[in-house]
Design brief:
The protein is an all-alpha fold and 400 residues long. It is built from 15 helices and 2 strands.
């Protein structure tokens, strides 16, 4: 399946696309992100069963995100001697254990311990994912392969919360997490059956992260990532208050709107792969600008439900291109250190998610939900300017 570098004996990029392995990577994303989202739809019964407040139960999400940041920065260096197939399988094992620990948790401490295991798996998987996909398909197929992998996020967004909520009400929240563990077992089986041996490349160290950040174009890129995801998350976190207070719709219409966002986001992954093939730089710059424009339109036209639905659907489509474009950026502009750069990207995204939600909440309390959308739009415009200011997209040769 692969060419072999004669001097090192390490396989080069695949000359024949291993699409079944790419599909296995997408399944891995779906199972990990789905498990990450589950507490949002099960928070009330979890809190009631464990005898804690919903706010304390919500720290299950915080614990996952915090461990995700740490794992994304450390995994490449700590596992640099281990076959990537084995490492990815290890993350699936952590996913299974995490869901089982949560399913049988009798206290908040055990619950949080289980979610920390998930954070390690989630952050570690994402940090290596782009570098692995680069080795599964020929160079020309990388954008398409990345869009397939990232579509697992959109699929999890569409299915995890509603299915988790429904099954939690029908069977109980513990059975939902047990079911997620069962899904993890199935994903592990598919990964072991389809992923080829992937001997480690290079020798990533913690010092590599510092060296990467010393490259001006990478530092600018990480700043752009922070701005893009912080702007988006401050919008998305507070979309329900906007729809309730400005558009004036109820829960059923809100659910339909979010479903439309999720489906459009799924389609945006594939749109992203086509746009990246034409111009990576333009895709990186235009996506946040498009979302900013839609945010401003929403503040002016959002009182009408049909207008709000159309704008939010387009927003989902535009945001679907973002993770594909930034993963493709790593595969081109930092191909020599794709694993370490992937760790930086995941850490930046997690920090942006936390910052976007926090700053958005502060603006909401001080000035109202419309101000949140205006502020987020300004942040997204700044992200576009940062990309144009010096984020390089020239191709860098990958390590042999």
């Amino acid at each position: 399946m692969t060419d072999r570098n004669l001097s090192t004996g390490v396989p080069a990029a695949s000359t024949v696309p291993a699409w079944s392995a790419v599909f296995a990577m997408s399944l891995g994303v779906f199972s990990l992100v789905g498990a990450e989202f589950l507490p949002a739809s099960l928070l009330t019964p979890m809190a009631g069963d464990l005898g804690i407040t919903e706010g304390l139960a919500g720290q299950a999400v915080t614990a996952t995100a915090a461990m995700g940041v740490v794992a994304s920065l450390l995994v490449a260096a700590l596992t640099h001697r281990i076959d990537r197939r084995t490492v990815l399988a290890g993350f699936s094992v952590l996913l299974i254990l995490s869901n089982l620990v949560v399913a049988f948790a009798g206290s908040v401490e055990v619950l949080l311990a289980g979610r920390l295991l998930l954070g390690a798996a989630l952050g570690g998987f994402w940090s290596l994912s782009t570098a692995v996909v680069m080795r599964l398909v020929p160079e020309a197929s990388v954008p398409k392969a990345l869009s397939i992998m990232v579509s697992g996020v959109s699929a999890a967004t569409i299915f995890a919360a509603p299915v988790g909520s429904y099954l939690g009400d029908l069977l109980g929240w513990r059975y939902v997490f047990a079911g997620a563990a069962g899904l993890g077992v199935a994903v592990l089986a598919v990964q072991l059956a389809t992923l080829p041996a992937l001997p480690p490349r290079g020798r990533p160290r913690l010092s590599t992260l510092v060296e990467l950040m010393s490259r001006r174009h990478i530092a600018l890129a990480m700043l752009a990532v922070l701005l893009v995801f912080a702007g988006h998350m401050s919008l998305f976190t507070y979309i329900r208050p906007f729809l309730e207070t400005v558009t004036g719709i109820g829960v059923t219409a809100i659910s339909a709107t979010l479903l439309a966002f999720g489906i459009a986001n799924f389609l945006g992954n594939y749109l992203g792969s086509m746009l990246v093939a034409r111009s990576l730089r333009l895709t990186l710059a235009l996506a946040p600008l498009a979302i900013a424009t839609l945010a401003y339109l929403l503040t002016n036209l959002g009182e009408s439900f049909p207008s709000a639905l159309a704008i939010i659907t387009l927003w989902g489509l535009a945001f679907g291109t973002v993770p594909v474009a930034w993963s493709a950026w790593i595969s081109r502009a930092v191909a020599d250190e794709a694993e370490s750069a992937g760790g930086l990207l995941v850490a930046a995204i997690n920090l942006a998610i936390a910052a976007g939600a926090a700053v958005g909440g502060l603006v909401l309390d001080l000035s109202g939900v419309v101000s949140v959308f205006l502020t987020s739009g300004a942040v997204l415009v700044l992200a576009t300017l940062t990309v144009l200011a010096g984020v390089q997209t020239a191709r860098v040769p990958a390590r042999a």
